[in-house]
Design goal:
The protein is 66% helix and 0% strand. The protein contains 20 helices and no strands. Helix 6 packs antiparallel against helix 10, helix 13 runs parallel beside helix 15 and helix 13 runs antiparallel to helix 20. 50% of the residues are buried.
Length: 551
């Protein structure tokens, strides 16, 4: 057995505690227990979005009150220095490593996940993500940046990839009647992880802060312990349905609905189809546009509206004094928080709506509406309509999040459900690409415009038009997505052989797997409360920050 397989603690002859065969659900299991299990994992790994909350405190981890700067410090020497404080740019590489490793690990180990099952993948994800945070804490204690990169960035990034895709295939199989809604619920958690984790981290850092420590390594250890418990509960909450199971009273879509297949494509063949690469381009272009805005949301609002945010409409950003810039920054933080709410809500809203509209039509909406909104954003800025500008980007960010949540169901419609988790893992290389393309486009064009003497309130105009052009390319790619030819699908015999291990004697192809029609019984209500209460707390904190925007 492989090293990963040995973590199951089972033998070759009988399934181990973590093995796929061990978690095939028996009759009576409520399928509504699975989304909270997925959320438990996604809410924890979603803290990757919020890691920037540590950068400023860590930039003075030696000096405590003021950074200890070294004139000869570069990226290589920063990795090993014990006498100089790290620069924010050095720490920011951890964020890049997160999403590069997320895409790579999901692509590399997606096939293993389909064979091993979501429970084993969830456990390995917990070990990597939380173990990486512990190693990062040791890196802070010893002031070794390379340990932080290795722990949080590389090992933690692998945990991100496995945790992100662990529930996708399972949820789609449990909710064939509502594929978009099911994946939207889980992937909403990844967007919401920072909404909970960032304010929690701030509370913990303030608690652990002393004259000798900024409190970050202690915070990481406490969060790693809490996340590990939460993620393990999620991993052990996973169950997979028996082969060919379907909800009571539900029948698969008629084969005449060409964009939803009832057959399955093998993982080895998916990337050979033009449909895979068209959908890869669809995701990459949608994410590139949105992620560039996320990274520059705060400075964008400050530079465009400047004094107008605090009642001085004729004062530009460069004319603001220090106290005014502080006030403007607080308002921009509320804008960022509001965008995060729409990012999260859009994941559930758009993915659920795609069950009615269809995935291709939903992406058409993303691109067509997005092009119009990006193109109109400079006009909203020039007429000084702060409310209109904010509304435009709230809708844009809802579609950015919705794109992530809708893509697994899109893949299941085109390639079938047998290998959808692994195919999704390979497609996430589009995210890794977009994580580089989007910020580079926004940041470098902004820098070029500023160096050329363009006023701060106009430096984003050209960027908005370029992002609209990227969405136009995505619109074209989406239009070319067609159903697959018969030659790509597996034979019935090949599918039956793959599904043989998930068949159980006491569960047939139908059945509700729960009380009545699989509704919210007491156990499911408790599971939803366990993930729902932290989400509500995070929403409340974010809303309080966003209120500043309208005061």
């Amino acid at each position: 057995m492989s090293a990963i397989d040995q973590t199951a603690g089972g033998s070759v002859g009988s399934p181990g505690l973590l093995d796929r065969e061990r978690i095939v659900a028996k009759a009576g299991f409520n399928r509504w227990l699975v989304p909270p299990a997925a959320l438990a994992i996604h809410l924890c790994i979603g803290m990757a979005y919020g890691f920037s909350v540590f950068w400023l405190p860590l930039s003075r981890s030696i000096g405590i009150e003021q950074s200890v700067a070294c004139a000869d410090l570069n990226l290589v020497t920063a990795l090993f220095t014990t006498s100089c404080d790290w620069r924010v740019s050095d720490l920011g590489w951890i964020y890049t490593l997160f999403f590069v490793l997320l895409g790579c690990s999901a692509a590399i180990w997606g096939g293993w996940l389909e064979r091993a099952g979501p429970r084993k993948a969830g456990v390995v994800s917990a070990l990597c993500w939380c173990g990486g945070m512990v190693i990062a804490a040791i890196g802070i204690m010893t002031h070794q940046l390379w340990l932080m990169w290795l722990g949080a960035g590389v090992i933690g990034g692998i945990g991100l990839g496995l945790g992100y895709i662990s529930p996708v295939s399972t949820l789609i199989k449990w909710f064939p009647d509502r594929r978009g809604m099911a994946t939207g619920m889980a992937i909403m958690g990844f967007g919401g992880g920072a909404m909970i984790g960032a304010p929690l981290a701030n509370l913990l850092m303030n608690y652990f802060k002393t004259p000798e420590s900024v409190g970050v390594w202690q915070t990481l250890l406490v969060m790693a312990a809490g996340y590990f418990v939460f993620m393990m509960c999620g991993a052990f909450g996973y169950r997979i349905p028996p082969a060919n199971w379907r909800p009571e009273g539900w029948s698969p879509p008629a084969t005449s609905k060409a964009m939803i297949t009832t057959r399955h494509v093998h993982l080895r063949d998916a990337h050979k189809t033009k449909q895979f690469w068209l959908i890869w381009a669809v995701l990459c272009l949608n994410v590139s546009a949105g992620i560039g805005v996320i990274g520059m949301a705060s400075p964008m609002l400050q530079e465009i509206f400047a004094g107008r945010l605090i009642g001085f409409p004729d004062v530009s950003f460069t004319q603001l004094d220090a106290s005014q810039k502080t006030a403007v920054a607080a308002i921009a933080a509320g804008f960022t928080g509001l965008l995060s709410l729409f990012n999260i809500g859009g994941r559930f809203f758009w993915a659920s709506l795609s069950d009615r509209l269809g995935r291709k039509a939903t992406y058409f909406t993303f691109f067509a509406l997005g092009i119009a909104l990006y193109a109109f954003a400079p006009t909203a800025a020039h007429i000084g309509s702060q409310a209109l500008f904010v509304a435009i980007f709230c809708v844009i960010l809802s579609m950015y999040g919705g794109g992530f949540a809708t893509i697994p169901a899109y893949l299941a419609d085109i390639f079938g459900t047998q290998f959808v988790g692994a195919i999704h893992g390979r497609l996430l290389t589009a995210w890794a690409t977009a994580g580089i393309v989007g910020p580079v486009v926004v940041n470098y064009i902004r820098e070029f415009q500023i160096n050329a003497g363009v006023p701060r309130d106009q430096v984003y105009d050209r960027t908005m038009y370029i992002l609209a052009g990227m969405l136009a390319l995505g619109l074209i790619a989406n239009l070319f997505v067609r159903p697959l030819a018969d030659k790509w699908f597996m034979s019935d015999a090949e599918v039956a052989a793959l599904q043989a291990k998930t068949k159980v004697a006491d569960a047939g192809a139908g059945g509700s797997f729960g009380i009545g029609h699989g509704g919210l019984d007491a156990k499911a209500a408790l599971a939803w409360a366990a993930v729902g209460i932290p989400i509500l707390w995070g929403v409340w904190v974010t809303i309080k920050q966003a209120i500043i925007l309208f005061q």
